[in-house]
Design brief:
Number of strands: 11
Shape: elongated
Largest sheet: 6 strands, parallel
CATH topology of the largest domain: Rossmann fold
CATH architecture of the largest domain: 3-Layer(aba) Sandwich
Distance between the termini: 57 Å
Helix content: 25-40%
Strand order of the largest sheet: 8-7-6-9-10-11
Amino acid sequence: MKKPQRILVIRGGALGDFVVSLPVLAALRGAYPKAHLGVLCHRAHGRLLEAANCVDEWRDLEARDWVGLFVDEPLRESGSNAWLSGFDLIVSFLHDATGVVHRHINQLSGGQLLIGCARPPNGACRPASEMMLEALEPLDLKHCDPVPQLQFDFENEGAKILALHPGSGSELKNWPEAKWEQLIGRLSEEGERLLLIGGESEADRVGRLADQFASENVRAMINRPLPEVAQTLAGCRGMVGHDSGVSHLSAALNVPCVLMWGATDEEVWRPAGNGVSILRGTNGISSIEVGAVWDEIKKCLPSIDS
């Protein structure tokens, strides 16, 4: 089979969904190093890939240009459709229950279309990143690494900082805020330098916690651009959080993680890598004790002089 010259990966979803797709990009880059690699994805994720120099170009999946792909009507001529038609291999992880999106893509492109799993289900009994790579099986690629990886430059100063992410996209995944207060207070008393991270969905929670402990040793990073968050995390000595996109991002950056885990299927969604420690409660995430998290931090995250 002729090697593709222009490859496009299409991926929607939240940050965690996106991070577990990174091995697909790495496998394609490794197999076809001379090919032009593009991504159609959410703007924040495209900027992350650009900052990490992972792809040759990206376009915003949420732009109005792409509305026609999702509507069961004849496609109109447009610059975006012409751009998409220029790829001879397209790997799509879009949710497409009616098939209309992939039908349109086939109409636009005469190249090969591979369709992967948009959202791995709980109970699948294998990591999500491995299921993403299954989309590439028709290409007969061998020994693809299923561990998501990103590299960012960072300043050594960050190695003294412990990142905390007290939120997630779902309250069911969140450790109680009162327990976060206790943990932050205890870490503060020990003189730890802490960075509280939060996106738009958890801005209130992170803001309240940051206000309680505001000092030169406790600061907050709320709703900042994803490349800035990634670069900051890359230099931290560890991250404490939940089952969230930030946790997947941290693990991909090779940052050691201590994670309080809720109801999500751990076998599917546990961030890959050796530096991830998972804590589960006997009666759900809220039953995890502060002392247990404290002990795990001291055991798993390297401490250095502040």
